Amino acid sequence: QVQLQESGPGLVKPSGTLSLTCAISGDSISDSNWWTWVRQPPGKGLEWVAEIYQSGTTNYNPSLKSRVTISVDKSKNLFSLRLNSVTAADTAVYYCARIPFHYYALDVWGQGTTVTVSS
Amino acid sequence: EIMLTQSPGTLSLSPGERATLSCRASQSVRSTYLAWYQQKPGQAPRLLIYGASSRATGIPDRFSGSGSGTDFTLTISRLEPEDFAVYFCQQYGPSPKYAFGQGTKLEIK
Fold first, then answer.
1. Pairing of strands B10-13, B104-108
2. CB pair distance less than 8 Å for A106 and B88
3. What is the DSSP string of B45-95?
4. pLDDT band at B9 (very low <50, low <70, confident <90, very high)
């Protein structure tokens, strides 16, 4: 059974950097899947943030591209998200998820981690 | 950028009734690229339907998806108490790669 677990600071100061990791169990990050981050501001809808393939190929939401970096660590079977220059608008629940190759849908999700941007 | 508009915003029905949720795209979307999710309070979304009409693993057959082009539908044939939740449609496109509709809240009447 594939499981994803997000981790990272729950509180980040404005203008700081948000850093999250997603640990994968029951699957290998090197298999034929894309790995992705989605966020959900309080009481709002879902916003796709970024995705990465095991080869290192990345795609970013244009609205966030200048501030976001996604990366993989094959040795630890995890992937990570960094978001720079955060503001209160970046306060959200951040989910990591898996997208099987040629599936075009997110079939396994982590439970989500809440990140609040506040001084 | 392809926009997805879901309707209605809120749907009030009783257990046992049929639910029909709509997702309309601003441009034509390949059926392969359209998915539906269910989200309950405090939980992550759960994939229900991918490729517009294929049920994900473990999803009951009372859930079905249909549609093509710009109009897609999620139908729940007979509502169970656990089906009351928020539903999102999602499309895969050129930019951004993934986009979600704003959601339909299915509430108990």
1. parallel
2. no
3. -EEEEETTTEEPTT--TTEEEEEEEEEEEEEESS--GGG-SEEEEEEE-SS
4. very high
